[in-house]
Design brief:
- The chain is an alpha/beta fold and 202 residues long.
- It has helices at 16-25, 36-39, 52-61, 65-73, 83-88, 184-201, and strands spanning 6-10, 29-33, 44-47, 78-81, 89-92, 105-110, 121-125, 135-139, 144-148, 153-158, 161-167, 170-173.
- Strands 2-1-3-4-12-11-10 form a 7-stranded mixed beta sheet.
- The chain is globular.
- The termini are close together.
């Protein structure tokens, strides 16, 4: 079996190109995903940052929301950054009208918790599972995690707030590692996808 995983980036809105570049640097075949038939062809999926309400509505419009929910329930490795973290939450504290989530991680998130666009910042984050120096986290209108359930594992905190969580094959960060040139988080996710492929092939 070819060891190179095919990882999609949900290409409805947000910083899609940066994730495609980071995934390629992490030795994955990266491709944009907009439709159910494209989703069916990937081994894992990144849900990028952007506007979570818009991504939610477009996912429904393009017919990918239900197939994505089903695949995540069935163990598809998925990684959400910023708005993508919100999309993977079981519950949003302050959802916009009509906003839906994919689910996948037993966590409650607060949208825009770190402030508005002009309050964006960078900070070094010690991320469990990523060896070496701290990851440089870029926080842009970022959410934080208010609480997690028993099955979710906290991987990082910043100033007392949870900013990275993993549950099984689902990974989420409040921040944008794709904007830094440091591809270690994407490499972690690519390794999760490889491990899942190997498990499924047994």
């Amino acid at each position: 079996m070819n060891d190179t995983p095919v990882i999609g980036v949900l290409a409805l809105q947000g910083d899609v190109r940066e994730h495609l570049v980071a995934l390629a640097a992490a030795d994955a075949v990266a491709r944009p995903v907009r439709r159910p038939e494209e989703l069916a062809e990937v081994d894992g999926l990144v849900i990028p940052g952007g506007e979570s309400t818009t991504i939610s509505k477009l996912a429904v419009l393009f017919g990918v929301m239900e197939p994505l929910r089903a695949r995540v329930r069935n163990g598809l490795p998925v990684y959400g950054t910023c708005a993508g973290m919100i999309m993977l939450a079981a519950k949003i504290l302050d959802p916009r009208s009509g906003q839906e989530t994919v689910g996948g991680i037993d966590m409650i998130v607060r949208r825009n918790a770190f402030g508005r666009q002009n309050e964006s910042f960078e900070a070094a984050v010690d991320l469990e599972g990523v060896p070496g120096d701290p990851v440089e986290g870029v926080f842009i209108r970022a959410p934080w995690v208010e609480s997690v359930g028993a099955t979710a594992e906290v991987l990082a905190e910043h100033e007392g707030h949870i900013v990275a969580v993993r549950q099984g094959n689902a990974l989420a960060t409040s921040f944008h590692p794709e904007l830094t040139g440091d591809h270690r988080v994407h490499r972690l996710f690519a390794d999760m996808v490889r491990a899942n492929r190997e498990a499924e092939s047994l």
